[in-house]
Structures are given as structure tokens and as C-alpha cells.
Write a structure and sequence with these properties.
Length: 457
């Protein structure tokens, strides 16, 4: 990759995967897979395009649009669209690369990709966002399809934007097909899709807790620190509350909301926060209100990891690299026993190294880390179920989808666990490395498919 411009996020994601593969016995048992890693690190296709649109003043605006179609060995490219001013190729390549192996872990027929634009929805009117979506899809429609590439939402792209994008695709192509996931329930969407990433994260951690405690513990009575306050954080909080946990934090781009009473952040408060997010308001409005100011403190410019006191479970659910090395140490000092990424690459490599070192040294008393490609796979899993429903022209009930989601997350945990035991033998009393096991399991499946299809000899 030395002949490419610096792509720090992508390089971090690649090194994190490559290091765990190289430090396992995978390449000793399957030396041909070394070549697969080199090939899989290069996207099959990168599409970059201009998006011109008109604001409400009649002024022409221009943004950059992207779609990184990374790997289709297991199925159509699958991954979200992100509208945010920080979007660039490094971030989209990192997200698309992670998506390949995350999708493989679901056991569904999906490849990996990612896309978006450096468009900032904040400060824009609904009409301006709609016009941007239509302009973006006028170009993107040439490169996607139900059996080619099926995008979904991500940061800045909610169900509303998916609707506008889908309408523009349908108008351009003159056909209805399941080309996007996260659609509305009355026009091809799946029930449980909005909840899926957060719910799936909690289901995954529940298996971690049960395994570590020999089936004696659950979320009941656990103090759970969550970052973010968007879709993933909200539904992770609600499901953890349902299972008996106390939520002690949420956050936004400006700072962290920390509970100061024993009740923590209740389900009712999560609903209020969700309404604030829809209105694009900050959590400070809740913290400063007369009704709630005695129940919370809002800490400007801080993430929650050093601010919560005692922590049992940490769920970073905002964005990449949101747990640093010193924050990892703080979580260990706070008594955290489980950390799982609701966001993609939520922990820095330094933080992961600290968690893995603690896992080896403290054995059964250690913190146990789960990477996003496994722990937050629930969202794309239900997107895959939405694709299946679209193909069959069926709609499953909430209960049916939730049961399938639970099964996928259980299998995802078990696959990473058993693969770690096979390829990275844990020391006596150690928890298996879920980051190594998940990386190896996802990569192994993709590499085998690439070899079967003649992607290299």
C-alpha cells in the first residue's frame, strides 16, 4: 500500500486484521490464504462522482460522492451510505473492508462495500436534503442493484433519506426492487431493522456474560456505559434496560450525559433523547432542563469512559476510535468486565492491545473485548433478512425477525469463540480472543470463496 496516499483509518483496519491472522496458526495450516489477504485488501471497484444540487436560495452546490465495492465473493456488495463532512476514501475503505468480514460472520449471502458523500445534513432544510438525495442517486443508480450492490443507511442517512433515495432510484430505473435496505415497513422494509444493531449488540454481550460466568450471570444488575445517542446507542440502551441493566451514560458530539442517581437513564428518557436527535438538538437541552438537571451531569468535550464511576459493561456506539489507550486503562480501573463495539472500529489499536494484554494477564478476572465486526453485525444481518424478504415478496413478523437475529448473534459469538480456540490457543484460564477468532472466521470464509471462484491461483 506504499504507493497510495496516506489512508490512516483504512491502514489501521488492515493492520488490525493482518496482525491477528499472522499471529495465529491460520497461515501455517492454509499458506495459500496469505495471497488472499493481499488481494482482499484491494477493492474490486471504487466509484467516485460529482453531486451537484441546488439549495433553497437557488445556488448550485457541489459535493463528492463515493461507493467502494470491496468484495463480492459471498454475495452482492452490502454496506451503508454515510453523509458527513468527514467522509473520504480512507474512512469508506476502512468501513468497507470491515464490512466484508462482518457480513461473512452473519452466514448470509452478502459481500462488503460502503459509500456516501462529504455532504453535511446539519443546517440544511428538509427540502435541501431531499434534493441532495435525488442528485446523489442520479449517479449512484448506475452502479447498484438488488443482485449487484445493496446499500443501506449509516451516519446522516436515516429511514427518511432511504425513502428519498429509493424513490429517486425507482424513478430512474422504472422498476421496484430491493436495492436499498432500511426501507419503510409498508414498502419492503423489515420489522426490527431500526433496532437490530443495538439489539444484536446486547444479545452478543449477553452470550459473553453467560460464557464468562458459567451461565450464572446476565445483564441483570449490570452498570452499562454507552457512548453515542443515535440509533445504535438508543436501542442497545432499551434492550439492556429490558434485561435488567442500569444505563449510566450516553453522549453526543459535544460531550457526555452521565446519570447521577441510581435509576440511571430510563427507557422513558431514551425516548425523549430520540426525539431530541430527530430535531437535531443536543443532549445539553435535557441535562439543563429543570426536570432532569438534578439527575444528570453533562460534561462538555468528554467521552463517558472516565466519568462514570463503577462500570460493568462498556458499549462504544458512536464512531471510530472513540476509546483511547488511557480510556481503556480507565475502564479496567473502573471494574469493567466486558467491552463490545457498537460502532465500527470503536477502539484504537492501543486500546485493543491493552484489553488483550489484560485478558492474558488477569485471565478469568480480565476485561473481555469484542470487535465491531462481530458485536455490531446485527444491523447488517437484518438488512440481509430484508433482502431475503424482498426476493421472496414476503414480510416476517417482529417475533420471527427477532428470533432470527438472536440466532445469528449466537452463531456469530460461537463462531468467533471456537475459531479462536482452534487457531490461537488460549493460555490456561484465559478467555479466548474474540478479536482474533472473529477476524480469522470472517477472513477464512471469504478467502475460501475467493479461491473456489478462481480469484487467485
Amino acid at each position: 500500500m506504499s504507493n497510495l496516499p496516506s489512508e490512516p483509518e483504512f491502514e489501521q483496519a488492515y493492520k488490525e486484521l493482518a496482525s491477528t491472522l499472522e499471529n495465529s496458526s491460520l497461515f501455517d495450516k492454509n499458506p495459500e490464504y496469505k495471497r488472499a489477504l493481499q488481494i482482499a485488501a484491494v477493492p474490486e471497484r471504487i466509484i467516485q462522482f460529482r453531486v451537484t444540487w441546488e439549495n433553497d436560495k437557488g445556488e448550485v452546490q457541489v459535493n463528492r460522492g463515493f461507493r467502494v465495492q470491496f468484495n463480492s465473493a459471498l454475495g452482492p456488495y452490502k454496506g451503508g451510505l454515510r453523509f458527513h463532512p468527514t467522509v473520504n476514501l480512507s474512512i469508506l475503505k476502512f468501513l468497507g473492508f470491515e464490512q466484508i468480514f462482518k457480513n461473512a460472520l452473519t452466514e448470509l449471502s452478502m459481500g462488503g462495500g460502503k459509500g456516501g458523500a462529504d455532504f453535511d445534513p446539519k443546517g440544511k432544510t428538509d427540502n435541501e436534503i431531499r434534493k441532495f438525495c435525488c442528485a446523489f442517486m442520479r449517479e449512484l443508480n448506475k452502479h447498484i442493484g438488488a443482485d449487484t450492490d445493496v446499500p443501506a443507511g449509516d451516519i446522516g442517512v436515516s429511514g427518511r433519506e432511504i425513502g428519498w433515495l429509493f424513490g429517486a432510484y425507482r424513478a430512474e430505473k422504472n422498476r421496484w426492487e430491493g436495492v436499498l435496505t432500511g426501507k419503510g415497513g409498508s414498502w419492503g422494509g423489515s420489522l426490527i431493522r431500526p433496532e437490530a444493531t443495538g439489539y444484536g449488540l446486547v444479545y452478543y454481550v449477553q452470550h459473553m456474560i453467560q460464557y464468562a460466568s458459567g451461565g450464572k450471570e446476565s445483564f441483570e444488575g449490570k452498570r452499562v456505559a454507552i457512548s453515542g445517542s443515535g440509533n445504535v446507542a438508543q436501542y442497545a440502551a432499551l434492550k439492556a434496560i429490558e434485561l435488567g441493566a442500569t444505563i449510566i451514560s450516553l453522549s453526543d458530539s459535544k460531550g457526555s450525559l452521565i446519570a447521577t442517581d441510581d435509576k440511571g437513564i430510563t427507557a422513558e428518557l431514551v425516548g425523549i433523547i430520540a426525539d431530541l436527535k430527530v430535531k437535531r438538538k443536543q443532549l445539553t437541552e435535557l441535562a439543563n432542563s429543570s426536570e432532569y438537571k438534578n439527575k444528570f451531569k453533562y460534561i462538555e468535550g468528554a467521552r463517558p469512559w472516565k466519568e462514570c464511576g463503577k462500570v460493568d459493561v462498556a458499549l462504544p456506539s458512536a464512531t471510530q476510535n472513540e476509546v483511547s489507550g488511557d480510556e481503556a486503562e480507565a475502564l479496567i480501573d473502573a471494574g469493567a468486565k466486558f467491552i463490545a463495539e457498537g460502532s465500527n472500529m470503536g477502539c484504537t489499536q492501543e486500546a485493543i492491545d491493552i484489553f488483550e494484554k489484560n485478558r492474558k494477564e488477569k485471565k478469568g478476572e480480565a476485561i473481555w473485548y469484542a470487535p465491531g465486526k462481530a458485536a455490531n453485525a446485527g444491523g447488517v444481518a437484518v438488512s440481509g433478512l430484508e433482502m431475503a424478504q424482498n426476493s421472496a415478496r414476503l414480510t416476517w413478523t417482529s417475533e420471527e425477525v427477532d428470533e432470527k437475529l438472536k440466532g445469528i448473534m449466537k452463531a456469530c459469538f460461537a463462531n468467533g469463540l471456537e475459531t479462536a480456540k482452534e487457531y490461537v490457543t488460549p493460555g490456561e484460564g484465559e478467555f479466548p480472543s474474540l478479536v482474533a477468532g472473529s477476524n480469522i472466521a470472517g477472513f477464512k470464509k471469504v478467502a475460501a470463496a475467493m479461491l473456489d471462484q478462481g480469484d487467485w491461483w
